[in-house]
Design a protein that fits this description.
Number of strands: 12
Number of helices: 13
Shape: elongated
Oligomer: single chain
Strand content: 15-25%
Helix content: 55-70%
Order of helices and strands: HHEHHEEHEHEHEEEEEHEHEHHHH
Structural class: alpha+beta
Largest sheet: 6 strands, mixed, barrel
Distance between the termini: 36 Å
Radius of gyration: 33 Å
Amino acid sequence: MNKFFTELSMLRYELSESFVIAFTQIRANKLRSILTALGVIIGIIAVTLMGTAISGIDSKVDSSFAVLGNDVIYVGKWPWGGGRGEWWVYRNRRNIKTEYAEQLKKIIDATPNSQLETAVPTTVTFRSVKSGDNQVNGVYTMGTTDEYAMITSADYKDGRFFTDAESRAGRNVCVIGYDIGDALFPNQSPVEKTVRISGQEFRVIGVIARQGSFLGLFSFDSQVIIPLTAFKKYFSASQNAEIRVKIKDKDRLVEARDELTGAMRRVRGILPDQKEDFAVNESQAFRSTIDPVKNGIALAGLFITGLSLFVGAIGIMNITFVSVKERTKEIGTRKALGARRRTILMQFLIEAVSICLIGGVFGTAIAFLMFLGISAAVPAFPVAFSGNLVVTAMLVSIITGVVSGFVPALSASKLDPVEA
């Protein structure tokens, strides 16, 4: 036991002495240490900024899918993603009818322990929306019922959603997205104002709070929602209809999807030996397509930026070899006085790791300042800085120091004291 504590005490002394020697050498060779650390600084900046971009893309994708809804399943004519080359099969399918929503709700109500909560019809078109001299073209215009408010997580900047009475009566009322309200009614509230959708007047009763875009392809802030009955009076509802079904438990998505598929087969009158002529979509369909691409981009980006860190590691290895060569007599003297191989090894290894850590700290600080600058200059650019990135940067710095300094430190520890 005494031997163990003696050895532990000796190890602590050797560690403290190695740190003192390492920082003495760094201070004695300031310019060389700065230039050596510069390679690590550049590498850490590159890797950290790539990490912030990857984190930002992840958060942007997650927020996009959150708007779609993790507890909503979409029944349509086409599968999301285009059907993997079988577009002609899906083109010949029967259109989805908005009336299916009521039939589905009856089946849901009659099913014991159903995993489905409700079904809401939607249909869309793209129209111009105008107010006074202000006009927005190609606006995503949706017709739906008052139950749409149950399946969306959107908040309202002003006003409200339309009621059951307004929905059934087909009143000319509408709810508009944030960007539409900002474009048509700058510096004023759009609520109770009138807009013209393809020449028809609609009274604005609500403005949806900013939601953002879906993967940069579609903005949820550039839409107009009107009652389905009013939609059918002025536009065609047969081409782009869809049924959105809210499920009770998003953790039981597979069971809910199977139940919905069976219910839709009943609604469509599909025989047991016939294939479905409709598509059941959910956000996971997009994830399964996007995740491999996103991961591939992340790996490629980290590999490319990691090359700069590799160059920095080579620089540290080279300088450590030079330091070993310069201090050969010192190493020989220390070993002649009884210094162990591990002591010499530890000394040069700690020196290499110290330079890397200094570079890591400065690199992370500079990367954080650049992150703040990018966020301020380009708010839409998806970047996210987190504590995990700081920890990762420090770990990468330590690993770089160990890897780049081990071989020179090992060669120093193996020097013959007489020859040295």
